[in-house]
Design brief:
It contains one helix and ten strands; from the N terminus they run E-E-E-E-E-E-H-E-E-E-E. By secondary structure, the protein is mainly β. The protein has a domain at about 35-140: Roll (Thiol Ester Dehydrase, Chain A), CATH 3.10.129.10.
Length: about 150
């Protein structure tokens, strides 16, 4: 997550692009998630969605829910000291998320085999009920992208 202009920020030692749609503090149109890294290495953020994130009246768009989960898993991968790109993402929607409700997203690393990192994430409401659960595989980027294309070690 390197910005061509060099505008990077750090949260709990994890670098990210300040204009990132999900977590960038310099993106006024983004979600502006603020992640922390827990002692177990998982990445967690709380968020209250407004009506601008609706797909249907009062219900958070599924693509936004997927983005929350993907970003939590990406931050968990970053907490290991690696940079990764989502290679595969599977989301199971358990119950719709309502605009205005307090949500907590948490992502963690399940295992790593060579350059492939398996992760999971969950999105829960304040009462602890799960709204969505995701599994993803991330491919570790050996040489960070600087030209917008990305370069992977062979």
């Amino acid at each position: 997550m390197i910005s061509p202009t060099g505008s990077e920020s750090t949260i709990d030692g994890i670098q990210f692009q300040s204009t990132c749609f999900a977590c960038g503090s310099d993106n006024p149109r983004g979600l502006q998630l603020k992640f922390t890294v827990d002692p177990d290495g998982s990445a967690t953020a709380s968020w209250v969605p407004g009506s601008e994130w609706e797909g249907s009246h009062g219900i958070v768009h599924g693509g936004i829910v997927s983005t929350l989960l993907d970003e939590a898993m990406a931050k968990a991968v970053a907490a290991t000291g690696s940079r990764g790109m989502t290679a595969d993402l599977q989301v199971r929607f358990r119950h719709y998320a309502v605009t205005g409700e307090q949500l907590k997203v948490r992502g963690w690393v399940v295992r790593q085999k060579a350059r492939l990192v398996e992760t999971e994430a969950t999105l829960v409401a304040a009462d602890g009920s799960e709204r969505a659960h995701a599994r993803a595989k991330f491919l570790i980027v050996v040489k960070p992208p600087t030209d917008g294309r990305g370069v992977l070690d062979k």
